[in-house]
């Protein structure tokens, strides 16, 4: 099979051939249906502590654009539904070719134009890869933020300004060391959905505690257009790099809000 992608001949409907877990019972993304979620008063606030990275790349890996530090630096996530500390690994995006599509998770069937994923791994593992393979839903913790078109996002501007430099698959650029990742996050990480799921790209491992925030972040139309200029390995616009929702099966989606 051609390397996986999002086109007709290698998209989500094909992934099960190399990754049979694609048809598993804990797959992501899902449609977050407000009438079926359950408020959990035990869910604590989340705390993300991000330290500026001295050596990080912004890259086009053929299926997303990704902020990737060369090594950990103590940036971590704790609290919420998490029992232990998770180390920051990378963040990346999924988007559409127009404003009516692009996010992976949906809310009552509604898609947002894009979704931002902050990926963290359970610090009781020796590495990110071990955490992916650790079995069970506590290997990774991924924060999902919906993006909607509105005011320019000043915190994301240093990243969206780099997009033209990574237009082609396999290219990367160094991120200025004064980039403040913490500024991307809302001041308080409240009001989120959380459920046990999977990576939304191959290997689709069912190792993720998903934490999806109810409140979208805003980006300008120009920032959205920057994403839509990114090219994949086939030389086509990368927009549409989102997996459709998967069956919930007998999972519960909990919320930190009523
Ligand atoms: N969209 S998402 O947030 O679900 C997400 C997607 C991909 C990744 C990611 O960095 N990798 C997936 C596994 N891969 C490398 C790998 C590791 C172990 C075994 C095999 C291969 C890297 C993280 C989060
Ligand atoms: Zn993702």
Account of the 3D structure:
GO terms for molecular function: carbonate dehydratase activity; zinc ion binding. Its cofactor is Zn(2+). One of its GO terms (cellular component) is cytoplasm. The relative contact order is 0.25. The protein is mainly beta and 258 residues long. The radius of gyration is 17 Å and the shape is globular. The protein has helices at residues 128-132, 157-160, 221-228; strands at residues 31-32, 38-39, 46-49, 56-60, 65-69, 76-79, 86-95, 106-107, 114-122, 140-149, 172-175, 192-197, 208-213, 217-219, 254-255. The protein has one domain (26-255): Carbonic Anhydrase II (Roll). The structure holds the ligand NS(=O)(=O)c1ccc(C(=O)N2CCN(Cc3ccccc3)C2)cc1 and zinc ion. The ligand NS(=O)(=O)c1ccc(C(=O)N2CCN(Cc3ccccc3)C2)cc1 binds at residues 90, 117, 119, 129, 132-133, 142, 199-201, 203.
Main traits of this protein?
zinc ion binding, mainly beta, 29% strand, binds the ligand NS(=O)(=O)c1ccc(C(=O)N2CCN(Cc3ccccc3)C2)cc1, two-stranded parallel ribbon, 13-stranded mixed β-sheet, Carbonic Anhydrase II, CA_dom, 258 residues, Carbonic_anhydrase_a-class, 15 strands, metal-binding, binds zinc ion
Q: How are the secondary structure elements laid out?
A:
Layout: E1 31-32, E2 38-39, E3 46-49, E4 56-60, E5 65-69, E6 76-79, E7 86-95, E8 106-107, E9 114-122, H1 128-132, E10 140-149, H2 157-160, E11 172-175, E12 192-197, E13 208-213, E14 217-219, H3 221-228, E15 254-255
Parallel strand pairs: 1-8, 2-15, 10-13, 10-14
Antiparallel strand pairs: 3-6, 4-5, 4-11, 5-7, 6-7, 7-9, 9-10, 12-13, 12-15
């Amino acid at each position: 099979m051609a390397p996986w992608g999002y086109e007709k001949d290698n998209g989500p409907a094909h992934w099960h051939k190399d990754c049979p877990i694609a048809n598993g019972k804990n797959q992501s993304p899902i449609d977050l249906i407000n009438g079926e979620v359950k408020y959990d008063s035990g869910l604590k606030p989340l705390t993300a502590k991000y330290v500026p990275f001295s050596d990080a790349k912004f890259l086009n890996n053929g299926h997303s654009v990704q902020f990737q530090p060369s090594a950990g630096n103590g940036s971590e996530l704790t609290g919420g539904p998490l029992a232990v500390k998770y180390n920051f690994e990378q963040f990346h995006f999924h988007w559409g070719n127009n404003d009516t599509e692009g996010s992976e998770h949906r809310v009552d069937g509604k898609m947002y134009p894009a979704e931002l994923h902050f990926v963290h791994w359970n610090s009781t593992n020796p590495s990110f890869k071990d955490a992916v393979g650790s079995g069970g839903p506590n290997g990774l913790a991924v924060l999902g933020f919906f993006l909607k078109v509105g005011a320019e996002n000043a915190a994301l501007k240093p990243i969206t300004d780099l997009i033209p430099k990574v237009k082609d698959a396999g290219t990367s650029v160094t991120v200025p060391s004064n980039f403040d990742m913490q500024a991307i996050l809302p001041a308080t990480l409240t009001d989120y959905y959380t459920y046990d799921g999977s990576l939304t790209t191959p290997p689709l491992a069912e190792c993720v505690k998903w934490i999806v925030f109810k409140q979208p972040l805003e980006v300008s139309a120009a920032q959205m257009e920057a994403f839509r200029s990114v090219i994949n390995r086939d030389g086509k616009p990368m927009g549409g790099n989102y997996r459709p929702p998967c069956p919930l099966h007998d999972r519960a989606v909990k919320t930190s809000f009523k």
